[in-house]
Amino acid sequence: MTIGRLSGRQAGFSLVELMVSLAIGLVISIAVITAYLSAAGAARVAEATGRMNEDAQAALTIMTQQLRMAGVNPAQPNRNTTTLHNLLSNPYIIRGCDTTFSNVTSATTTAALTCPNGASPSSISIGYEADRYNTVPTNAGVPTDCLGNGLTGVSRTVTTSLNVVTTTTVYEAENRFFIGTSTYITSPSLYCKGNAASTNPQPLVENIENMRITYGVSNPGQPRSFGDNSPGVAAKFVLGYMTAAELIGSTAALNGSLTFSQPSMWTPTWTVAFPTTSTFSLSDLVSGTGFAFQNGVSTGAMIWKAWDAVQAVRVCVLVRSENAAVFDSPAQYLDCSGNLVTPTDRRMRRAYTTTVLLRNQ
């Protein structure tokens, strides 16, 4: 019996065809994976950027609102224009430090704050007359500090719009802002310590890695002093921005000691020769009511006069992403001093800046 031939040849892939197919499939797979990773990376960067923008907006909004309220409100309807400008026991509208106050949580008054040597992050104490309109009051209608705790009122004598001398209750808020961490929140955050009772500082905004504050100072001899209670309106001209140490002249002076160096910015404006000793006498003061640099008059003299020259505050916050957002290489950024920095991790960072005029100075 003869076996007949098959009607058709058997067909299949050759080894070359198989290799070509695998190569094409591999290229397509790589293209799809690359597109996915690129889209995922872009989405991750966009999400991190959006979160950073929100954190920065929250932090700067808080600082802006607080700084705008610094001081008192002499234009309240129950006071006439002869009422003393400053009804608060705290002579400081603001007091800053180029680093974190060493006793930021323990100092009982603004004057007791101690500023150590250091460059960052800055901290600041802001004092203002609180009421139920510029704060969120308690259920009892009592003004609150930055953490929502009710303040204790103090009695002050004022002259009403009907020229009647009477007493009124004034609420003093003294809020301290700084960058810190805690046991439960390890990421650097913007913290606030209020002066209501013995409250502990609380984080307000997370992922705020640094804060740099500089102070816009006015023309010497022009500004009315906040601390000396004198009413009236002063011209406000910002000549430039200084750090806290530059404003005072030295770290020692920043802490209230008598050591004081002449700020070069005002060298031509001194009306007497700069003293050769480390202390000032009354004759060493610059002419003009309430001029800024009146500290060091005597032992224990307060330094709040130096802060009376501040008419504006510039706040820069350095915000970082919550998690790593880039994986190919570290994301360089410009810090609050304008320096290009290459980080050691894969987080994104960006500096945000705002300038606030002190309305009640």
What is the secondary structure topology, with strand pairs?
Elements: H1 15-69, E1 94-97, E2 123-130, E3 153-159, E4 165-180, E5 189-193, E6 202-206, E7 208-217, E8 240-242, H2 244-248, H3 251-254, H4 304-307, E9 310-320, E10 333-334, E11 340-341, E12 349-357
Antiparallel strand pairs: 1-2, 2-4, 3-4, 4-5, 5-6, 7-8, 7-9, 9-12, 10-11
Q: What fraction, in percent, of the residue positions are helical?
A: 10-25%
Order of secondary-structure elements: HEEEEEEEEHHHEEEE
First-to-last CA distance: 119 Å
Task: Report the total helices.
Answer: 4
Average pLDDT across residues? Answer: 75
Q: Strand tally, please? A: 12
Rg, Å, rounded: 31 Å
**Subunit organisation of the chains:** single chain
**Uncertain residue ranges:** 221-234, 250-302
Classify the beta-strand content into a percent band: 15-25%
Report on the biggest sheet. Answer: 6 strands, antiparallel
**How many distinct folded domains?**
1
Described by the principal axes of the CA atoms, the overall outline is elongated
Global structural class? alpha+beta
Write up this protein:
It is a single chain. Helix content is 19%, strand content 23%. The chain has 361 residues and is an alpha+beta fold. The protein has one domain (49-319, 352-357). A hairpin with an 8-residue loop joins strand 4 and strand 5. Mean pLDDT is 75; it is low at 221-234 and 250-302.
